[in-house]
Amino acid sequence: MMKKLLVAFGVALLLTACQEKEEIIKPKAMELSEEAAGFYCQMTVLEHEGPKAQIHLAGSPFPLWFSQVRDAVAFTRLPEESKDYVAIYVNDMDRAESWEQPGNDNWVDADLAFFVIGSSKNGGMGAPEVIPFGTKEGAERFSSAHGGKVLRFSEVPDEYVLKPVDFKLSDTLSE
Hints:
The protein is of the alpha+beta class. Helix content is 27%, strand content 16%. The chain has 5 helices and 7 strands.
């Protein structure tokens, strides 16, 4: 009787172990370096002003870098891009030195951040930006000074990050 009980317990233990899902550990944000190239443009991310983003995909030791936060948000909305991301970090503009120097190691989880869209500030690639802040108060201060609306990551409209941008050439280039 005792032997049958031990066998049953062993089988139950094995079945439980097999049913456990692999726990995905959220990686920490990486410091931005000279080697970071924008996922879409392949240009050095540090060469552009304004906030940046990094997306970590499951199973990859290195993040995808984005020269603009707008591009990272678009990545998550495009059907052809991987949905296997485990972490998204954006520059915390509350802690940025300036617009030109948003910081190499001041990241905030995109799900915890507050974003300003529709402001007078464009991102490093010249397109309208999705500007991240670690606090709602910081986003509201920025919005008061530069216009725009404060939203959470999931509330950023697809159209805002996916619509084509009309880049106008200066008069001297078009002559």
